[in-house]
Structure formats: C-alpha cells, structure tokens
Amino acid sequence: MEIVIREAEERDVERILEIINYEILNSTVVYDYKERTYDFQLNWLKQKKKDGMPVIVAEGENGVIGYGTFGIFRPFDGYQFSVEHSIYVDKDFRTHGIGKQLLQGLITLAKKGGFHTMIAGVDASNERSIEFHKKFGFTEVGTFKEVGFKFEKWLDLLFMQLLLK
C-alpha cells in the first residue's frame, strides 16, 4: 500500500473527524467523552494553521487513513521549544506502518521548526503505544496516577520524551 504523508487541508476534516470520534467512543487514547462536531474539527485545523503548528495526514488510495499533529506543550513562554504530539490511525489500517510514517514526519517537522523536545502523553495501559514510541527513542519520564476517568475507571497518564538533536 502506497502512503503519501502531506499537510492536512480543509477537505480532510471529515475523515479526521471520523478517526478521532472513533477513538473518543471506543478507546482511552483520548480522554474525551463526547464526539466532536465538524465545525469543532474545522476550527481546530484552522487554529493549528494560524498558530503555525502542523497537521499532517497519511493518505492511501482510498483517502485519509491517519493524521498527526503537535502543539506547544504548555501555554507559557518557557515551553516554546517543547511540543506534545498526537497520532491517530484509522482502526482498519493499524499495523501497516502508517503511525511510523506520521511520527517520523512530525519529528522531522519539529527539528526543522527548531524545537528541542517532543512529548507524548500516553494512557499507561496502552502498551502498544509505549513500545511504538520507544522504537523512536522516546523514554518514559513520569506517570500521573488516576488523572483521567473514562469507561467507569481511573486512568494513569504516562509521559514520554524525545530530545531532538
């Protein structure tokens, strides 16, 4: 399967919305409860572009099958060189290397953007995501116990970090 990684455009919002809403309803990879609306996701994309933060998509022969983004870790001046990223891949296209291509694209963009570190906030029970990040050199730097609550259980949030050199 040939995959093209490119900058997201407004025409991609519907597929991005489908992918994130599936995760909201069915997983703990995002701690939201309610599905997002088209308008919410469109405004999100526009704000990312306005802020100079990337949103990239993985496009296959049938359209967008995953996306990734990053943004400043926290909204204070001292964090201006630290970004936190997110990657989401359509449930039917996992284990095909799409996440790897998206993360490599984000790492490249972060380096070009002059950022110093990338941070991943991962549900601590998501062993596949933890191992995925370790393959790129991310290390575990701390766990916040029971900071999330979803599906009637408390969730631990693991932070991982990659220093960009």
Automatic annotation (TrEMBL):
InterPro entries: Acyl_CoA_acyltransferase, GNAT_dom. Residues 3-165 form the N-acetyltransferase domain. Pfam families: Acetyltransf_4. Keywords: Acyltransferase, Transferase. This is N-acetyltransferase. One of its GO terms (molecular function) is acyltransferase activity, transferring groups other than amino-acyl groups. It comes from Brumimicrobium aurantiacum.
